[in-house]
């Protein structure tokens, strides 16, 4: 009997040792990931501040003189306005950067999400409804806290430089429409995702990826005819020389669209733009009304040829493939993290759950991926150069040059961005590089 008792006692002691070792291993992981998170947050924040200061210094240093290649088309006053506009935006951008950093710490290690989670859990809803409630309340609070920055950007900075045409009424209506639309579209998608995370087993992340990919394609298809008209008026481009030139270009390039439209962009801003939207046969070509006033027919045709270059070179499909692949990889990582207790504990959460894993992962991913932004910029700029080359084959490159210079002038885009800052933040090549490339194509 004493031997049995001794053996039982030894087993109990071994279990205690194992439990303590497990706790120690878990705490090591918690502390390690917390430290890693804080280090990456600090590095990404310092890097953003460093890049912003580089941009301010570089633009200010070149403010006194228009670059030689633009001297015939951009006045010193216009160049300095662009420099001041760029500097104002970058300086203001530091404030939300500090705010976002502090808020992220408050939500995670500061206990904000833990407090919110525990209060919603007390309502004793099922896991999916609990997750939806937590995420919606978090989203609402974040939107309200971000609102002052949006107001200042629109009604102070954009107003100061003569770009804002948004009224308070339009601003509020847009915000309400966006919120309602987000609820109508976002809640059902979120429900499906959380349900799959709860019920679909170990392979939930594959099923979720299929749902998100299908949803993205569906939204691309419905956006032109169902979503965009909620915010803007779309009118068919009037009959005339402009429409004839555009139709002829589309025919030459073998592009079938569901219409050529003009959007009332001037209702909100004096900035000009043009874009494709839609998917499959439900594609639209859209010009801002402000753009039509800026450019001649030759220049407008060149801009459209550039956009068609993206279509002909399959840039949209390639971008979709990269997006889908990135989403799949992110979901696979989330599936791994979701099962690790230390992931929650390291970020201030005591109760592991699928919805909290999703929310935490969404919050911290930008901290760890900021350093990779130049890779996406390289890919995007490569596409822009290819689209410019295509446009130069379809039209005279000088018209695209004139159009771009006009857009730089009217939109107050700086002609002298810092190269390192631009590599992180700009999807298009810097103005001097792009114009030099087009000049080479025109010879």
Write the topology of this structure.
Layout (H helix, E strand, L loop, with lengths): L1 H60 L14 H32 L4 H10 L5 H34 L7 H32 L4 H28 L2 E3 L4 H13 L6 E4 L10 E4 L6 E5 H6 L2 H16 L2 H24 L2 H5 L8 H16 L3 H22 L2 H15 L7 H7 L5 H11 L2
Parallel strand pairs: 2-4
Antiparallel strand pairs: 1-2, 3-4
Helix pairs in contact: 1-2, 1-15, 2-4, 3-4, 4-5, 4-12, 5-6, 6-10, 7-9, 9-13, 9-14, 13-16, 14-16
Notes on the protein architecture:
- There is one protein chain.
- The protein is mainly α.
- It has one domain (2-234, 311-441).
- The chain has 16 helices and four strands.
- The chain has a four-stranded mixed sheet with strand order 1-2-4-3.
- Helix 1 crosses helix 15, helix 6 crosses helix 10 and helix 9 (297-312) packs across helix 14.
- It is globular.
- The protein starts with a helix and ends with a helix.
């Amino acid at each position: 009997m004493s031997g049995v008792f001794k053996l039982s006692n030894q087993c109990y002691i071994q279990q205690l040792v194992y439990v303590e070792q497990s706790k120690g291993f878990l705490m090591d992981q918690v502390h390690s990931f917390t430290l890693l998170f804080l280090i990456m947050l600090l590095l990404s924040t310092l890097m953003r501040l460093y890049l912003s200061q580089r941009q301010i210094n570089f633009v200010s240093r070149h403010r006194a003189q228009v670059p030689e290649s633009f001297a015939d088309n951009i006045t010193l006053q216009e160049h300095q306005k662009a420099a001041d506009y760029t500097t104002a935006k970058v300086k203001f951008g530091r404030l939300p950067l500090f705010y976002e950093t502090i808020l992220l710490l408050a939500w995670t290690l500061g206990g904000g999400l833990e407090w919110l989670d525990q209060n919603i859990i007390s309502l004793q809803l099922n896991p999916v409804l609990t997750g939806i409630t937590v995420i919606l309340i978090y989203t609402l609070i974040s939107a309200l806290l971000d609102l002052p920055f949006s107001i200042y950007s629109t009604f102070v900075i954009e107003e100061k430089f003569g770009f804002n045409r948004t009224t308070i009424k339009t601003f509020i209506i847009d915000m309400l429409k966006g919120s309602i639309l987000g609820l109508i579209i976002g809640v059902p998608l979120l429900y499906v995702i959380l349900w799959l995370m709860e019920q679909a087993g170990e392979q939930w992340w594959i099923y979720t990826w299929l749902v998100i990919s299908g949803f993205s394609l569906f939204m691309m298809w419905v956006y032109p005819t169902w979503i965009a008209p909620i915010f803007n008026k779309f009118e068919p481009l009037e009959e005339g020389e402009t429409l004839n030139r555009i139709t002829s270009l589309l025919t030459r390039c073998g592009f079938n669209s569901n219409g050529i439209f003009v959007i009332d962009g001037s209702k909100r801003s004096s900035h000009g733009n043009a874009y494709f939207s839609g998917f499959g046969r439900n594609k639209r070509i859209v010009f801002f009304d402000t753009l039509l006033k800026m450019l001649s027919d030759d220049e407008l045709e060149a801009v459209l040829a550039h956009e068609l270059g993206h279509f002909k070179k399959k840039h949209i499909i390639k971008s979709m493939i990269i997006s889908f692949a990135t989403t799949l990889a992110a979901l696979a990582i989330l599936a791994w993290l979701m099962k690790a207790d230390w992931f929650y504990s390291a970020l201030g959460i005591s109760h592991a759950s699928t919805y909290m894993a999703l929310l935490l992962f969404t919050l911290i991913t930008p901290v760890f991926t900021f350093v990779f932004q130049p890779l996406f910029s390289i890919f995007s700029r490569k596409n822009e150069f290819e689209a410019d080359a295509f446009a130069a084959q379809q039209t005279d490159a000088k018209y695209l040059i004139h159009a771009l210079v006009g857009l730089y002038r009217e939109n107050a885009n700086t002609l002298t961005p810092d190269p390192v800052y631009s590599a992180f933040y700009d999807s298009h090549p810097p103005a001097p590089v792009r114009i030099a490339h087009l000049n080479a194509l025109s010879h």
